[in-house]
Amino acid sequence: MAKYIFVTGGVVSSVGKGITVAAIGRILKSRNISVSVQKLDPYLNVDPGTMSPYQHGEVYVTEDGAETDLDLGHYERFIDINLTTASSVTSGQIYSSVIANERRGDFLGGTIQVIPHVTNELKSRIHLVAEQSGADVIIVEVGGTVGDIEGLPFLEAIRQMRNDVGRENTFYIHVTLLPYLGSTSELKTKPTQHSVNELRRIGIQPDVIACRSDYPVSDELKAKISLFCDVDRQAVISLLTASTIYETPLILEEEGLGDFIADRMKIIQTGQDLKEWRQMVEKIKSPKETLQVALVGKYVELPDAYISVREALNHAALHHNRNTEISWVNSEELNKGNIDQTLRFVSGIVVPGGFGERGIEGKVLAAQYARENKIPYLGLCLGMHILVIEFARNVLNSNDCHSTEFVPSTQHPVIDLLPEQRDVDEMGGTMRLGLYPCKLTENTLAGKAYGTSLVHERHRHRFEFNNDYRDCLERAGLIASGLSPDGKLVEIAEVKNHPWMVGVQFHPEFTSRPGRPHPLFRDFIGMAKTILRDGDQRPLPLAGNIDKNKSL
């Protein structure tokens, strides 16, 4: 039987539950314990696919096409697993399912209530992850904050799980914030006490309290929390703010959380090995040369809108022993008058995915700047559309080239709606979603990056390269270096006679991992580090390496 770890949050939102869950998964996996993860989100949306990134950050897409919360990206990157639709559950899904069952008459004329009907549906979704994954431990994060009214059915469902599967098969972790009071120069535990009291009022006694703090948590404070919240002294865990999120598993391990969980849940563990992870963190924290990369988008005020892109750039930079400094460029504010001043110092340009016409022309200008100045460019989904539009306009000298997403009446729709999307009316969950194959062309930048002939990548789009323009664009120097196996869809486009200018229809950022960067990001950064920009100079040779027979 699978065992279940439930993680709740208190005091404030955005306290770091997602990173904590991902880190717990990593320390359990380091003990050869198989792990799967699930996120329960109390909002009424069926999924975050139709939300603005300003609401919940990026939409993360799983292999099987689920549009999910960005926390699933943390889970996959830390634990190095591929999750599925079952790992993302919302109130919208639960209530829709319960109501659909009632309309079919599944409840035999009974009165439908939150308890037991909604809670039973929630529990069935939790058990589904265990059944599908076969993992030893299922870690379940409950979104939101204890005390939120919409989260009450979720908390009731996880409370019932202890009775359903047994005390030794359930474990509750509560993540809280210890605020720092500047006037008295001390951390305060009262908000944590109140949060735990609220959780206990519902019927859940946490087994562990993880205390987020920007300052060290003393043994005296831990003892106080242990006393007032009725948990073991060793069950009060300090989660100090770290310089990198990837240090979190090491912090939890040093606090003894891995052994504590294994002991309390009677999990057989065969050693513990975080050696490679520790080496990776040490490499991240070591001094390195900085590489400046521009990310040109319209949601740059909220970096979480592009969190997987940011992490993929960091993974690739680490591979090349570099630090990445991202220049967040608002595409709405980019114009011909300021583009050189904005981009003259960067060594690479990334245009990520997005929807809607706002900021499009700024992105086209960024692609033109990259092409004309031989700066490495990586276009992701919409970023590939931008590459194609810019190339068609300025290389073929046709200003009326555009995408029908933005200008339905454009004279030259080089980007157009996928044929299967023409009769789609609903917005949610109806795009081309999930894993699709891509056949690579030999001796291209993409082909060399992957080093294989066929790859599978995650997609999320409605619009695609218009094949009516493929021949004329290829003759002008645009290479279709990746196609669907039937040759009908252009998956990758790149510019001939450019150091590295590649656009992809998919989202490679979702499969990048720390210690194993995605090949396209790896080669993008590999080329970017060779580019000299304003103010740069090539490193001088060390004195011992100078050939004294050569004249200076």
In words, what does this structure look like?
The chain has 552 residues and is an alpha/beta fold. It has two domains: 3-174 and 257-280, P-loop containing nucleotide triphosphate hydrolases (Rossmann fold); 287-528, Class I glutamine amidotransferase (GATase) domain (Rossmann fold, 3-Layer(aba) Sandwich), CATH 3.40.50.880. The chain is 35% helix and 22% strand. It contains 18 helices and 23 strands. The strands form five sheets. The protein has a nine-stranded mixed β-sheet, sandwiched between helices. The protein has a seven-stranded parallel β-sheet with strand order 5-2-6-1-7-10-11, with helices on both faces. The protein has a three-stranded mixed β-sheet with strand order 16-17-20, covered by helices on one side. Strand 22 (490-495) and strand 23 (501-504) form a beta hairpin. Helix 4 packs across helix 5, helix 5 (114-133) crosses helix 6 and helix 14 (360-372) packs across helix 15 (382-395). It starts with a strand and ends in a 24-residue tail after the last helix. The model is unreliable at 548-552 (pLDDT under 50).
Largest sheet: 9 strands, mixed
The first-level CATH class of the largest domain is given as Alpha Beta
CATH fold field value of the largest domain? Rossmann fold
Let me know the number of strands: 23
Supply the number of structural domains. Answer: 2
Q: What percent strand? A: 15-25%
Mean model confidence by pLDDT: 92
- Write out the strand line-up for the largest beta sheet, numbering strands in chain order: 13-12-14-15-23-22-21-18-19
Assign the structural class, choosing from mainly alpha, mainly beta, alpha/beta, alpha+beta, or little secondary structure: alpha/beta
Number of helices: 18
CATH architecture type of the largest domain:
3-Layer(aba) Sandwich
- The first-to-last residue Cα distance is 73 Å
Q: Overall 3D geometry?
A: globular
CATH superfamily of the largest domain: Class I glutamine amidotransferase (GATase) domain
Taking all Cα atoms into account, the compactness measure Rg is 26 Å
Helix % is 25-40%
Could you list the spans in which at least 5 consecutive residues all have pLDDT below 50? 548-552
